[in-house]
Amino acid sequence: MSGKVAQEAVELARCVLERLDVVGVLCVEFFVAHDGSLLINELAPRPHNSGHLTVDACITSQFEQQLRAVCGLPLGSTEMHRPAAMANLLGGYGRVASPIGPLRVRFPA
Fold first, then answer.
1. Residues 50, 27: contact at Cβ < 8 Å?
2. What pTM did the predictor assign?
3. What DSSP state is assigned to residue 88?
4. In angstroms, what CA-CA distances link 107 with 19, 20, 34, 64, 104?
5. Rounded to 5 degrees, what angle do the CA atoms 83, 38, 34 make?
6. What mean pLDDT, rounded, does the chain reach?
């Protein structure tokens, strides 16, 4: 994924968080369409399985961050203290899915 697409994902996720007035952890899962545009696949307002590696890899896990956020405590460091990776095994390795349709979500700046 290019740095440009990654930055767009961060900006779009931040916009969703602000518009929904989220307190706590929100996982925003995207698909990258063939043309490079981003499609929101899932909004998970909770610690998410894609972030479970934070329990062993980060100074503050997503679970602790959730508690800190909803209790009004300062958030902890998200710095990694050991390498970790997460692999999604659903759908098979290298499988490319076809989008259902041209659903696009864009929030004004």
1. yes
2. 0.67
3. -
4. 9, 12, 21, 30, 10
5. 100
6. 82
